[in-house]
Amino acid sequence: MIGPEQQPVRPRERVTAPEATTSRAEAREGPIDIDIDIGTVYVRSLVRSQLRLAVACAAGFAVLLLGFAASFVLMPDLGSLLVLGVPVSWLMLGFGGYPLVIGIAVIYVRAARRNEAGYLALSGSARRESDGDPT
After folding, report:
1. Helices 31-74 and 98-131 sit at what angle, rounded to 10 degrees?
2. Any stretches that span the bilayer, and where are they (predicted)?
3. Three-state helix/strand/coil letters over the chain
4. Along the chain (135 residues), what's the average pLDDT of each consecutive run of 10 residues?
5. Is 40 part of any domain?
6. Which residues form the domain of 51?
7. pTM over 0.70, yes/no
8. Considering the domain boundaries, does residue 68 fall inside one?
């Protein structure tokens, strides 16, 4: 059913890529391969340092909580001692515990930023070296 203005449909042609003469491993040689390996090492190093920092801050927080709990157990009179009508144990938690928790958080954020800045400096210098730029 070909009309006067329609052209006959050509059969489909299969288009394939030419056969590769090199393997993928050979094609990756050069600075790209170096960047991938160095980048992987740097990222793993950053993750390890951030994990170490998080564990240290969590341990500090746990010691803080256990210290408060131990002080309340070892000195039960703190619950009955009142200062301006407020038990001393509440004052210790409110004015001693929360500022220390905020301090741990501030220390964590500063150290995490320092770790990330070190990572960026290392990855930037590695990228410049692979590009051949000495600066």
Report:
1. 170
2. 53-75, 81-109
3. CCCCCCCCCCCCCCCCCCCCCCCHHHHCCCHHHHHHHHHHHHHHHHHHHHHHHHHHHHHHHHHHHHHHHHHHHHCHHHHCCEECCEEHHHHHHHHHHHHHHHHHHHHHHHHHHHHHHHHHHHHHHHHHHHHCCCC
4. 70 78 51 59 88 94 88 83 85 83 93 90 67 54
5. yes
6. 31-129
7. no
8. yes
Amino acid at residue number 67: G
How many CA within 13 A on the CB side of residue 121? Answer: 6
- Structural domain includes residue 14: no
pLDDT at 3: 59
User: What was the pLDDT predicted at 33?
Assistant: 46
Number of domains in the chain: 1
